[in-house]
Design goal:
Blueprint lengths: L2 H19 L3 H4 L5 H14 L23
Length: 70
């Protein structure tokens, strides 16, 4: 093989490796899960307490939780 062919092969391989190993924005910011909501409820109960004014039901549960902390 000549030098330009080797160089282009190396560039293509390096580019492919970079693309495959670079995390995407979607994977970096995953949607909250039910487990995350449970952790949120536990943290709220321990740090600020739950009462009639602030409780998991005020978000209508996990389905309407915005993912924000207490």
């Amino acid at each position: 093989m000549n030098k330009p062919a080797i160089l282009s092969t190396v560039v293509v391989a390096a580019t492919a490796a970079f693309v495959l190993l670079t995390p995407t924005a979607a994977s970096a910011q995953a949607e909250p899960t039910g487990r995350d909501f449970g952790q949120h409820v536990a943290e709220c109960a321990q740090t600020m307490g739950l009462d009639g004014g602030h409780n998991p039901g005020m978000h209508q549960g996990f389905s309407n939780w915005d993912g924000l902390p207490c």
